Amino acid sequence: MRSSQQQSGFTLIELMIVVAIIGILAAIAVPMYSDYVTRSRRTDGQAALMQVAQELERCYTQYSAYNNNNCSVVSGGAVSQNSPEGFYTIAATGGNLTATTFILTATPLGAQLSNDTDCTTLTLNQLVVAGATGADTSKCW
């Protein structure tokens, strides 16, 4: 006498369908996540530009010049420092930093340099006019 036993489990087809669905979801999620990371790192550069601009305004208030070497952010008549998270370098040199004007430039470093093609540089001047260069500058600020 043979008793009929019912076996339970997943068939190969069911498992393949689940793997295909996970693959499709991953193909959509990974690029979106990468874009999110790039945009969130871009805020590091924006915040650093605003911080250095505020420091330069304090210098102008104290010394009547943006390029005074007594300022905390000015060294040798230039500005050069990394952003707090280290994804950008902030600089103003030569004609971009005078007694009455400045143009700060944030240039991406490391992974941000290779991933952020929309905004290859961010700029900010003494009139708080923000600018950018890159493939799609409308996304930069």
Task: Describe this protein's structure.
By secondary structure, the protein is of the alpha+beta class. Helices cover 41% and strands 19% of the residues. The chain has helices at 12-63, 110-115; strands at residues 74-75, 78-82, 88-92, 103-108, 121-125, 130-133. The chain has a six-stranded antiparallel beta sheet. The radius of gyration is 26 Å and the shape is rod-shaped.
The N- and C-terminal alpha carbons lie at a distance of 78 Å
> Percent range for helical residues?
40-55%
How many helices in DSSP terms? Answer: 2
Number of strands: 6
Order of helices and strands: HEEEEHEE
The major β-sheet equals: 6 strands, antiparallel
Structural class: alpha+beta
- Strand % is 15-25%
Mean pLDDT: 92
List low-confidence stretches: none
Shape, principal axes of CA atoms:
rod-shaped
| Biggest sheet strand line-up | 1-2-3-4-5-6
Question: Compute the gyration radius: what is it?
Answer: 26 Å
